[in-house]
């Protein structure tokens, strides 16, 4: 084995190679996409290690377009966002494909696209629904002493948007954001009943294809809920829980909404009567009150007198 004349020669050479590699890495990275990343030894300690540079810059580009008073050119977007023109161009083409931005080919300018408008409208609808349903749900819970819940149809499922846990011992607990099968839950069936027949048929046809269900039977079930004004669930989905739900009258482009009362199985049989649960008038009054708050014509009427399960 050949030795080295200088004891520190090989380590020094290795150190220089590592340093050249780091310099080359910084140069290549900057050429490919300035600011994309940097070695840990020169990284900004104030920046989260989980931060993704391209995503951050794409969001800057989108924010600049969204906050503008009018359409913007490629150059204007680059200046306002601080992102190089070539990178902005790539981001815009990607955002345009997904509908987040739209290009006016005549003026070669960009503006907010339909996808962002839909997201904004959905957020405003949820805020409006929460403001209308929250107080009514709380009042309803106080009257019947059981867990009350509201939610809306979303992509073929029923999504729980608000819950007021009942004060009684053993009251049912349910998390906001829980997704229930539309046809497999009382809340989902009640929300479906608020849909116009043509839209209901279209939605159930897709569900029938996905679940191998029978469309005619599903339509008949929805008609029965619409006729009676309520949907009952006697432990089919969860053996420990009974549920009674009613639809909220459809308002404009608002997604179908339903209200429900969740009751523990042991108290379930006591709530049923030939004409429905003892709290059904309260539940229907609450649904009418929410519809009225959302702009639906008609009166919710006087609040029903409190009734008990006994």
TrEMBL record:
<dbReference type="Pfam" id="PF01614">
    <property type="entry name" value="IclR_C"/>
</dbReference>
<keyword id="KW-0238">DNA-binding</keyword>
<dbReference type="InterPro" id="IPR014757">
    <property type="entry name" value="Tscrpt_reg_IclR_C"/>
</dbReference>
<protein>
    <submittedName>
        <fullName>Winged helix-turn-helix transcriptional regulator</fullName>
    </submittedName>
</protein>
<keyword id="KW-0804">Transcription</keyword>
<dbReference type="InterPro" id="IPR050707">
    <property type="entry name" value="HTH_MetabolicPath_Reg"/>
</dbReference>
<feature type="domain" description="HTH iclR-type">
    <location>
        <begin position="52"/>
        <end position="114"/>
    </location>
</feature>
<dbReference type="GO" id="GO:0045892">
    <property type="term" value="P:negative regulation of DNA-templated transcription"/>
</dbReference>
<dbReference type="GO" id="GO:0003700">
    <property type="term" value="F:DNA-binding transcription factor activity"/>
</dbReference>
<dbReference type="InterPro" id="IPR005471">
    <property type="entry name" value="Tscrpt_reg_IclR_N"/>
</dbReference>
<keyword id="KW-0805">Transcription regulation</keyword>
<dbReference type="InterPro" id="IPR036390">
    <property type="entry name" value="WH_DNA-bd_sf"/>
</dbReference>
<dbReference type="Pfam" id="PF09339">
    <property type="entry name" value="HTH_IclR"/>
</dbReference>
<dbReference type="GO" id="GO:0003677">
    <property type="term" value="F:DNA binding"/>
</dbReference>
<dbReference type="InterPro" id="IPR029016">
    <property type="entry name" value="GAF-like_dom_sf"/>
</dbReference>
<dbReference type="InterPro" id="IPR036388">
    <property type="entry name" value="WH-like_DNA-bd_sf"/>
</dbReference>
<feature type="domain" description="IclR-ED">
    <location>
        <begin position="115"/>
        <end position="296"/>
    </location>
</feature>
